[in-house]
Structures are given as C-alpha cells and as structure tokens.
Amino acid sequence: MKKTIAAIFIFVVLLVAAPLAYAQEPVIKVYIDERQVQFAEQPVNVEGVTMVPFRPIFETFGIQVSWDEEKRAVTGTKQKWSISLTIDQEQAIVNGETIMMPEAARMINGHTFIPLRFVGEATGRTVGWDDTSKTVKIVSTLRSDLIDILYSNDLKYEGDMKGDNKEGKGKYYYRNTLWYEGDFKANRMEGIGKQYDPQNPKSYYEGHYLDNLSNGKGKLVFDDGSYYEGDFKEGSREGIGKLYDKTGKLKYEGGYAHDSREGKGKYYNTDETLFYEGDFKAGVQHGVGKLYNKGKMIYEGDFYEGKQTGKGKIYRSDNTGILWYEGELRDANRHGQGKMYDNTGRLAYEGQFKSNNQTGKGNVYYSNGQTYEGEVYGGKPEGIGTLSDVSGKVVSAGYFENGAYKSPRPDEQAEHYKVMTLKKQFTQQVIDGLMPNSYGLDSSEAIMVMELPTKEALLQFQQLSDSAKKQVINSYAQDNWGNVLGVKHCYAKVKYQGLVYAEADISYKMVDESVKLDVYTEGK
C-alpha cells in the first residue's frame, strides 16, 4: 500500500523518556526520523522530566515558530495547525484544545524548553528513549501523518453541517482527490466510512471510525489486491483478524497488535493447507508453535524471532509421523543436547550436537543392541570411548577412528588425529546466497565460516601441513554440506577472533587434492 494509506494504519505506543541527571550526564542526542537535531542549548533534566528546546524540534516538523516577549508566550503554526504555550505554565493550546504538560514550559539561557513527552502528544509522533546511548528518537506515525492531512490547506470538505461542525454524511478531498467518505461527528471522522489512498484508489479501508481513526470492525485492501478483515484500534490492526491474498485465499488468521501478527495465530500455504500454528510476535513466529507439511506436523516446539530456537521435536519429512529428533535447536539447527531416531522410531543417538552434526560426547545405539559411549563426530565413534554388547559387557575400549576401534590410545602425532581434533572444535556460521546478503552471493553460492575457539586451536591449525589444512577445510565442508545444499561454490573460511587464516572455494564431493588453499599466517 502506498505511503498515505499505509501511514494511516500504523501506530506505535508512546514511550516515556527515562530520567536524566541534570548536569553530569553526557550530551543527549535527538533524532527525528533518523536525522539528528542540532541544538544551541542541550536538552536537560528537570525534576525527572526530560526537557528539550522547542524551536529546533518544531521547526524540523515544518512549523513556523514565533515569540511574544510581552506575554512570554511561544506559538507555532503550520497551515491550519497551531500550538501556543506560555513560560511557567503547564497548559498548552493545540488546535484550540488545552493539553496539560507534565512540567511547565520554562526559559533556560534564553531558550524555551518543553517536556519531551509533550512533543509526541502535540504532534502525534512517538518518542523513544535509549538510556545506554542517551539517545531520543522521535518518529513520524499514523497520527502525525493524519494530523498533517487534516490540518492541511489542501483538504476540502463537502457534506452535512450542524452549526459550525461537520456532522452527518460527508466527504474529504485531499489535493482534489477523494480521500474519505462516510460519517462525521463533531468535526471528526466517526461512524462508518471509507478511506482511499489518493495515489492508488484500489487501496482503501472501509469500516468503523472513532476520533478520525479506524476503530472496531473493518476491511483494509492493499494495492496488490490482498486484504485484511477484522479488528482495528486507533488506526492499527489490533485484535483478531484474517489476511487474504488477492485471489481470496486465506493466508493468516489470529491475533494482531500494532498492525503486526501477535499472539496466537495460524499461517497457511498458497494452497490453503496449514503451514504454522502457534505464537507470533512482531509479525513472526515467536514462542511455542507447530510446523506442518501436507497436513502432517513436522515440528513442534520453541521459536525465537521466526526460527526454531530452544527445545523442540522434528518429525520425519515423509509424513509418517515418526519422531526424528528431539532436543535443543539454534536458528533451526540441531545444536546442544538432543536425541536422534531411525526410520522405525528407534533411538539411535543421544548426546551433543553442533550445527546439525552429532559431534561431542554422546551414545550411539546400534540395531544389533550394541552401545557406544564416548566421543563422536558425525554420529560415529571418533575419539575415546567404550563399545558394549547388548548385555552391557565391554567389547572394546580406547581410541576409535572412523566409527571403529583403532587402538588403546590415540597417536596424537597422526595426521588424522590432528585433523579430527580441529574439526570437532569448529563452530559454524553459514551465509547462504538464497537469502538477502551483503556479500554479493547468488543462489548458487554460500559462505561457510569455520570459527576456531581458542588461540591454541589456531596454533594447531597453523602447524598442520598444507595437505592436512586442505583436508580439514574440505572434509568439514563436505561433512556439513547439508547446511549449504544445492550450491555450486561454498567459500570456506577458517577464522579466529574475526581474522581469516585460510580460505578455499569448495565444490560438492571435491577431493582434497583439488582444493586451492590460500593461507594467511598473520590473518586478514
């Protein structure tokens, strides 16, 4: 939806600025719609109320400010909009209505100061305070844009009147284009009405109004033909509603707050089959929920900011309903403590996971009844551990390599041992070209960052031969190719504390000897 109508349905709750120490605190920075305001006299704290200079802020809004020395009063006007206040008085007159300020306007070093919170109340903007950076953010909102239109010289009314008040049926034209038609009461849009985007008449809201804003039941149609039906409050989608695509297919049903999906809800695929049901926050899955594929649940558990993070259960993708994994997840990856099951539902592994890989300490349960307990990599015994038969009798104990018993103790000078020691320590970050990125990657490319945890691990890597370095990078990328599945080039980088110490362009099933490796001894 274009700016005019979109603005009319977004409202952010006013935040009250936190108290500031009067003289000792750092300089307070004030931003209006991301642009910093420069002051000759800095904002201050007066008895717990943040006070800001009147003129530079209101002039940024396009308001003409004047001063009456005799009355010690300041006024501001913008077309039909007006404000006036008097020094040492708590009352301000905004468009003919009296508003009480939390602290009286006052003169400080020849400049008029007003309470920060009043800036939002007078102009319809939100005022946010970041105590850490001592920053104020004043942001345009639905109310401020609405005020600009309602008090514009470009707004014309035609319709019923009762005395000097607009009352009954009427129409507003903004810049000679129909903007609103419907009920009026006491000069306000109130009752049933329809409001258009002057730049795109296909975009509109129709429903209930109160005090110039959509309130109650209504329908909001976007310029692409999709639409929302449900509850509104103070101009925003708030309450329970449904969102449909342009063909009328249901996309979402559930709670809304501040114009975003919030609370309990359900999200549907384009074929109207259920995709997700559960908690939403700020428009994305957040809390507890379930994911579905072709009508079958494939995940249930925790979500954080749109991704499976926390504890959950993943079911097999073949729609058999058999549990595949249960345990901890991070950003939709198996990470932490968990359990894996085979295609019959039998427990096959329990223990530690790293970036979807069974790596760390764990138990491997074999179909013949044997159990391995110890160090693992990729779900196989790798390191020190014990293999027992179905009765619990020890079959072999010591060092395991590639899933099989090797010797009582490892040869710590062996290349395989050194390579596996490093691979077990890597933590992984993947940047996939399928997603928006700042690296110029396309859908056939990805970056896999292999982060070393300690200085000691970095030294271990640097002491490897070139062939062993290639093996570490290539084999780790191949082991974790499922995290970059479908790409032609995986740019693998070994990093420590933000510096790259080696990198290579890896392709799927590449052999170690084919890897072209760039090594940076000092890091880059």
Explain what the structure shows.
Residues 1-23 form the signal peptide. Pfam families: Cu_amine_oxidN1, MORN. Keywords: Repeat, Signal. By secondary structure, the chain is mainly beta. It folds into 5 domains: 3-144, Copper Amine Oxidase, Chain A, domain 1 (2-Layer Sandwich), CATH 3.30.457; 154-264, Histone H3 K4-specific methyltransferase SET7/9 N-terminal domain, CATH 2.20.110.10; 273-358, Single Sheet (Histone H3 K4-specific methyltransferase SET7/9 N-terminal domain), CATH 2.20.110; 362-410, no CATH class; 423-519, no CATH class. 12% of the residues lie in helices and 52% in strands. The strands form 5 sheets. The protein has a 22-stranded antiparallel beta sheet. Strands 5-6-7-8-9 form a 5-stranded antiparallel beta sheet, with helices on one face. Strand 3 (44-46) and strand 4 form a beta hairpin. Helix 5 crosses helix 7 (466-479). Residues 1-24 have low confidence and may be disordered.
